[in-house]
Design brief:
The structure holds 2 protein chains of 2 kinds. Chain A is an all-beta fold. Chain A has strands at 5-7, 10-13, 19-24, 31-37, 44-50, 53-57, 64-68, 74-78, 87-94, 104-105, 109-113. In chain A, strand 5 and strand 6 (53-57) form a beta hairpin. The N and C termini of chain A lie far apart (30 Å). In chain B, strands 2, 4, 5, 9, 10 and 11 form a 6-stranded mixed beta sheet that branches. By secondary structure, chain B is mainly β. The chains are: A mainly beta, B mainly beta. Chain A binds chain B through residues 2, 30-31, 33, 35, 41-43, 45, 48, 50, 55-56, 58, 90, 94, 96-108, and chain B through 32, 34, 36, 42-46, 49, 51, 89, 91, 93, 97-108.
Chain lengths: 114, 115
Amino acid sequence: DSGVTQTPKHLITATGQRVTLRCSPRSGDLSVYWYQQSLDQGLQFLIQYYNGEERAKGNILERFSAQQFPDLHSELNLSSLELGDSALYFCASSATSTRGHGYTFGSGTRLTVV
Amino acid sequence: GENVEQHPSTLSVQEGDSAVIKCTYSDSASNYFPWYKQELGKRPQLIIDIRSNVGEKKDQRIAVTLNKTAKHFSLHITETQPEDSAVYFCAARPNYGGSQGNLIFGKGTKLSVKP
């Protein structure tokens, strides 16, 4: 167990629907990052939150949004889903040390849009 | 923004041989370079990292080298074993984000170690 918890593990939904993916970072980590990994693709950065505020934005579609709550858990909302949104969505968190650390990833949510 | 290129996309080696994966980055201000291993269906896991003030770092059979002038870094795995088979990702963190900045990943290298 990495300490980063993602739910649900699997999600199957129809095109046009909306889903919410949830992530709880490791205890004490203030930063949460969301990544999308499509089949045989790399890790595409979507968005980062730090202590409740949006910190950086990557290639996130307008149909997608995210937020980080006071208890530091984060949710990624995907709406008007398309077949191409099917992917593995990872959340990661990082330590707050000023020396910096790599991420710790959660186990991911596999989204299938049918 | 930062761009990370990774080569090769696939690599097949015989057990016991060495494997080398190379990455280049575009932002000279990037200061942190981790490597992740992702086994099939699992989450990426950090295996080694290097900061911009260090040229080389080693951890048992794994080593990473960094050439800041050329803006490239490499992962070296010696005495490969079948359990090393996985997809390996390099990443760079641009300096503008500080220690909490987001990582930009390469597209990955699928390493296969044949027994």
